[in-house]
Design a protein that fits this description.
CATH class of the largest domain: Mainly Beta
Distance between the termini: 57 Å
Number of strands: 18
Number of helices: 7
Strand content: 35-45%
Radius of gyration: 22 Å
Structural class: alpha+beta
Oligomer: single chain
CATH topology of the largest domain: PH-domain like
Helix content: 25-40%
Largest sheet: 8 strands, antiparallel
Shape: elongated
CATH architecture of the largest domain: Roll
Length: 286
């Protein structure tokens, strides 16, 4: 390791070479190794050491259960390097994966359309370039005009992707739903596949951790959709056509379910990530 190379993570683990030169290795087995992550590469130190420069990682992905040995491992990180796929498992999976994700996307410059959708309404927002920084609690984005914003990872309610026109080309765009100033917003991100793959995994994991199973009746869903659309909590009863006492009772139930949170002592509420997910599902059903 050169003097200018910084070690980010070091621990025991194992790796499995699942794909080599485009060919699946159905008889592949786990190899015990020392896993070292630096700001330049991932080193899998074993009898035959594998060194993967971070810039050569094409993307990270979901599970790649090439055989029973892979399927039997509860947690591992899938790394695509050209025509090869490596599965890396460590004793502290979460810490290694977080360090790897940060190493790949910290400092990356991508296209950003911030607040592209607010309260379910598409805005006339422009694409601009932004620089990424990943923290444990947030994805921070510094824009080229000097502005900056952060997406609270505990506040992500949904994510997805689509094809959109960006900088004169039709490209893959990640769409992440979160909140700002008490309103549900969507921010669009577009960049290199290696960066998007990390962001996609992050957003899906964060949204999954923020999700709970709910069983709301039609009126409760209408209240959630009203809040999602930006209706004042004090005007929701008139908007959905019922009395204030009924709506406040619904607020109490939604607070217990974690769908809304109290902003002020009485009747002023805002949607949580789960609430925004429920609203999005209700809108897609209509």
């Amino acid at each position: 390791m050169g003097t200018s190379e910084t070690k980010l993570w070091d621990g025991q683990g194992k790796y499995l070479h699942a794909l080599s030169d485009g060919q699946e290795l159905s008889d592949a087995r786990w190899q015990q190794c020392r896993v070292v992550l630096t700001d330049r590469r991932v080193v899998l130190a074993a009898d035959e050491t594998v060194s993967v420069p971070l810039e050569k990682i094409g993307r990270v992905g979901e599970r790649y259960d090439v055989n029973q040995a892979a399927a039997g491992e509860s947690e591992y990180t899938t790394v695509y390097v050209g025509e090869d796929v490596l599965l890396v498992a460590t004793a502290d999976h979460g810490a290694f994966e977080a360090a790897l994700y940060a190493a790949i996307i910290d400092g990356a410059v991508i296209y950003v359309n911030h607040r592209a959708v607010v309260g379910g309404v598409v805005q006339e927002a422009d694409w601009t370039r932004g620089r990424l920084e990943l923290a444990d609690d947030a994805l921070r984005v510094s824009l080229e005009d000097g502005d900056a914003f952060a997406i609270d990872r505990a506040d992500i309610s949904a994510s997805g992707s689509s094809k959109r026109e960006v900088a004169g080309e039709r490209r893959t765009v990640l769409e992440v739903e979160h909140s700002e100033d008490g309103k549900s917003v969507q921010t669009y991100l577009c960049g290199r596949e290696r960066h998007l793959s990390v962001l996609r995994q992050l957003f899906e994991d964060d949204a999954g951790q923020n999700r709970v199973d709910l069983d709301l009746d039609p009126l409760e869903r209408r209240v959630v959709m009203a809040l999602y659309s930006g209706i004042s909590p004090f005007a929701v009863s008139e908007f959905v056509g019922t009395d204030v006492e009924t709506v406040e009772g619904i607020y109490d139930r939604l607070i217990e379910l974690g769908v809304v949170e109290v902003v002020r002592e009485r009747a002023d509420v805002s949607l949580t990530p789960e609430g925004r997910r429920v609203a999005g599902e209700s809108m897609s059903e209509q």
